[in-house]
Design brief:
- The longest helix has 25 residues, at about 65-90.
- Helix 3 packs across helix 5 (about 65-90).
- Helices cover about 60% and strands about 0% of the residues.
- The protein has one domain.
- The chain has helices spanning about 10-20, 25-30, 45-50, 55-60, 65-90.
- The protein is mainly alpha-helical.
Length: about 90
């Protein structure tokens, strides 16, 4: 699957992550303890798979790590927007 840090490409990995903008809104919406987490699958992978953005085989064989992060960002932004729409639709 994806390469782990420490494989000799740490500078390249740091460069990749340093270019990505923070998704600060996630901290305010998705807190630990809210819901159930995957026990045997990393949440990053689980979110992409459960959204239907990609299959496990596609993540393993086709998408780069950067593309997987882009897919995850799409999932996170969509879920955040759905939560905001639900909150706005609730009577006050």
């Amino acid at each position: 699957m994806f390469s782990a840090a420490g494989n000799g490409n740490d500078k390249v990995q740091h460069k990749f992550f340093s270019k990505r903008q923070s998704l600060e809104f996630i901290k305010s919406v998705f807190r630990e303890g809210d819901g159930v987490s995957y026990s045997n699958v990393d949440g990053f992978i689980g979110a992409i798979l459960s959204s239907g953005q990609a299959t496990l085989r596609e993540l393993q064989e086709y998408y780069t790590l950067e593309e997987a992060f882009d897919l995850w960002e799409i999932v996170a932004v969509n879920r955040y927007n759905e939560i905001q729409a639900i909150k706005a639709a609730k009577p006050k």
